[in-house]
Design brief:
Pfam families: GrpE (PF01025). This is Protein GrpE. Homodimer. This protein has 5 helices and 6 strands, in the order αααααββββββ. The longest helix is centred in the N-terminal third of the chain and has 43 residues. The chain folds into 3 domains: 46 residues; 54 residues; 61 residues, Head domain of nucleotide exchange factor GrpE (Nucleotide Exchange Factor Grpe, Chain A, domain 2).
Length: 206
């Protein structure tokens, strides 16, 4: 008679965990299994180490970029405050244009002093990485210019800066203040061929 409580042959071995298969008869883990476990742990540690190195490099670059930006743009707020001084000096220099000088020696000396002060002031700004944006005659650029009005001027391509109402400034590679300008309208499109005049066409059919 067959014992109903008897376990079929092989059932116990199939139910045994995989780790047990790697154990030696006395219950210890085999060297091969131990090596595989250590290799897996080493690979994990190596991956964590590489990730940590990448994070440290990114942090170093970010800190370096912040230091460089701090050096470039540290005077941004101060620069904006002193632009009004530059504007006033420009207005004072324009108050006595060169064609109106030569009549009064005192006025001439005063105008010359304003010109020298304005020139020195501009050089000081450039020393600190602050450059003027004076786009007269250039194509309008919304990144650097602010259009205040349009002027009918058919001698210029549409969108050309025909008047600078207020000089703009950039600090390093950032816009500090846009140039306020007037742009032309109604002229020929940039790159379009100029209208022909009688006799201007050369006949090449001969």
């Amino acid at each position: 008679m067959t014992d109903q409580n008897q376990t079929p042959e092989g059932t116990e071995a199939e139910a045994m965990p995989d780790t047990a298969a790697a154990e030696s008869p006395d219950g210890r883990i085999s060297p091969e299994a131990r090596i595989q476990a250590l290799e897996a742990e080493l690979a994990q540690i190596r991956d964590q180490h590489l990730r940590a190195l990448a994070d440290m490099e990114n942090l170093r670059r970010r800190a370096q970029r912040e230091v460089e930006d701090a050096g470039k743009y540290a005077v941004t707020k101060f620069a904006r405050d002193v632009l009004a001084v530059s504007d006033n000096l420009e207005r004072a220099a324009q108050a006595v244009p060169p064609e109106k000088r030569g009549g009064d020696p005192l006025v001439d000396q005063l105008a010359q002093g304003v010109d020298m002060t304005l020139s020195s002031f501009r050089q000081t700004l450039e020393t600190h990485g602050i450059r003027r944006v004076d786009p007269l005659g250039e194509r309008f650029d919304s990144k650097l210019h602010q259009a205040m009005m349009e002027v009918e001027d058919r001698t210029k391509p549409a969108g050309t800066v025909v008047q600078v109402l207020q000089t703009g400034y950039v600090i390093a590679d950032r816009l500090l203040r846009p140039a306020m300008v007037a742009v032309s309208r109604g002229g020929p499109k940039e790159g379009a061929p100029a209208p022909e005049t009688p006799g201007s066409r050369v006949d090449t059919s001969a």
